[in-house]
Every structure is written in C-alpha cells, then in structure tokens.
Design brief:
The protein has 338 residues and is an alpha+beta fold. The chain has two domains: 132 residues, YerB-like fold (3-Layer(bba) Sandwich); 136 residues, YerB-like fold, CATH 3.50.90. Strands 3, 4, 5, 6, 7, 10, 18, 21, 22, 23 and 24 form an eleven-stranded mixed sheet that branches. Strand 21 and strand 22 form a beta hairpin. 37% of the residues are buried.
Length: 338
C-alpha cells in the first residue's frame, strides 16, 4: 500500500513539474515574440541585447574634399551644424547602427560637445579648438581623441589629409570596453506615428537647407515615404553601402551664432528655446525647440507645447544659424515658402 501511495505521489509531482516547465516555456516564447524597437528610430531590432549599448557621436568632415562620407547612412541620428568659414560639420550618433567605415573624422568644437552631453554620449574626434580642448578636459563627457588612440583609426591614402581619417563602430566599441565606458545608455524614446498614419500639415515634398558651403536638398519619395538627400545637386551616396541617404524626418533647429576669433570659429547656444521646423512624410509643421540646460534633452514641440511625433526611420537634425537659408515647397503648387 505504501509503495502504491509513493508511486502516485511521484506521478503527481512529475505532472506538476512538466506543467510548470510547459508554462515557463510558453511564457518565454510569449516574451520573445513581443517586438522590440529602437527608441530613436522605431525600427525593430532582433533582441533587447541590441539596445544594451553606450551611445557615441562622431565628428565628421563635410568640406568638399571630404565627400562622400562613409557610415552616415548607418547612424541612428545625424546632426549637421555650422562651422567656421561657412562650412558645416556632421555629428553621427550611433546606438543600434553599426558601420565598418566612419569618416572622415574631424575636430571638436564646444557646441558639438554640447550635443554629446545631452545624450551622455562618448564624443569621438580628431583634434580640437583650444576652447573645445579645455571643455572636454573638464570631464563633462567621455571622449576619444584620435591622437591617443591611433591604432583604432586609419588613413585612406587615396585622399589628402586631413580629410582622410576613418574608424569603425567595432574599433570604437573596443575602446569603450577597454576604458570601462560601455555601460548601457539610458536613451530617450521619441514619440512615433504608426507607419500607416497620415500626418497633418502643409505639403512640402522639396526642401532646401543651404549652408554657405553645403547646399542640401531633400526630395520626398511617395513610394518609400522617405526623403532622398542631395548635396550640391547630386545624390548623396554613402560609399560604405553605395546607397543614397534616405531620411524619414528632417528637423530644423534655428539658432544664433557669433564669431569668436580671426579663424571664424563660432559660439552657438544650444540651450533655451527657438523656432523649429519638422519635415516628415511630405509635410511641414512649424513649432519650437527647447532645452533646459546642457544635461537635458532637446525637445521639439508644436505650438501647444506637445512633443512632435515622428515617422519611423532615421532623423537628420539640421542646426541652422542666421546664415543658413531654408526653403520648401509643394511641387504641385506654384509658390515656395521660406
């Protein structure tokens, strides 16, 4: 009788164990089937491990001899900022994106560090202005200057220096790991529309944003729902994948600048507030940007103060001072807007 009872108990325990394991397996399957999205683009990633990274921002040359630039199509967010002499500079923010070739890498300016600061990003550059050097050495952000990490960068001998310095996400993450800077970034999440939503706003399927030495044009492609990017009337191609730059959202952040020295270096205040323009899905909306302090994010909002929703995909943030001309149009209409 005792043997029978023991057998029955063992059978019951086995059944309970199998049921528990089955529930656990089902729960795990349910959890793994939930889609995971990049908070900066709302593009789906394969697993949560893709988001367990530290953000870094690379200063990239945009002089005429630096084009075409590599790796910029892989960045999660791209900034274009004014620089001395009428040129502009790119700041490529990498989080989920990766690239075997990034560059040409160029020098730091204080307001570029201000951008890295709002993301708690590692700032990657080659050289600096004296003001940027003093700023970086205060320790507000971690930084990688090529001068101290030469083995992680290389020169393309087919181009002339200083417009030929490159690196890669693999090399940069290796530095982050070695330095202990690879803690996971607490990245903000932008609000996004569904890909099927129709955005409200005036039509703007052709956008021109002209820095003195960089004439940018965005043409809206209805089929893809993205803007195709051109520079100086030519399609802007990323040689790392031979594809034209495609952009879901173009945000104009209007700022004022002043010249600091005889070299034409600029001072730009990226805190406070100002006018902002959003181009997305062939539409335009006018609003404001606001940033409380250098350790706070920049919010882009409508007139009611609500943060703009973006279309899923890559975003270019065009920081435009008083010397940048901005115009857009609905090509089915007859008048341009500025």
């Amino acid at each position: 009788m005792k043997k029978i009872i023991l057998v029955v108990v063992m059978l019951i325990m086995t059944a309970l164990f199998v049921t528990s394991c089955s529930k656990t397996d089902n729960q795990e399957k349910t959890q793994t089937t939930e889609p995971i999205y990049n908070p900066l683009t709302h593009e789906q990633v394969s697993s949560s491990q893709d988001l367990e990274r530290r953000v870094f921002i690379v200063s990239i040359d945009n002089s005429s001899t630096a084009r075409p630039q590599s790796g910029i199509s892989s960045a999660d967010i791209m900034y274009e900022v004014p620089a001395e002499g009428g040129i502009s500079r790119y700041l490529a923010l990498f989080y989920v994106g990766s690239a075997d070739t990034i560059g040409p890498v160029r020098s730091a300016r204080p307001y570029m560090v201000d951008v890295a600061r709002e993301w708690n990003a590692v700032f990657v550059h080659c050289g600096w202005s004296e003001d940027a050097k003093a700023y970086l050495q205060k320790g507000y952000v971690d930084y990688i200057n090529e001068f101290g990490y030469g083995s992680s960068f290389w020169r393309d001998k087919s181009r002339k220096a200083p417009h030929n310095l490159y690196t890669s996400t693999e090399n940069l993450y290796a530095i982050l790991d070695k330095k202990g800077w690879d803690s996971v970034s607490q990245v903000r999440e932008f609000p996004f529309y569904s890909s099927d939503d129709v955005l409200v706003g005036d039509k703007a399927d052709l956008v021109d944003i002209n820095y003195p030495a960089a004439k940018n044009r965005y043409k809206y492609d209805v089929e893809s729902g993205l803007y195709l990017r051109y520079i100086n009337s030519e399609a802007q191609i990323d040689p790392s994948n031979d594809k034209q730059i495609e952009v879901a959202n173009v945000i104009v952040q209007k700022v004022s600048s002043k010249v600091l020295d005889s070299a034409g270096r600029l001072s730009i205040n990226l805190t406070g507030s100002g006018e902002a323009i959003l181009f997305s899905k062939g539409t335009v909306r006018i609003g404001t940007w606001k940033r409380d302090d250098l350790n706070s994010p920049t919010y882009f909002c409508d007139d009611a103060g609500d943060e703009w929703q973006l279309a899923p995909g890559k975003t270019w943030i065009q920081v435009c001072n008083q010397y940048v001309k901005i115009s857009y149009q609905d090509t089915t209409a007859t008048t341009d807007k500025e």
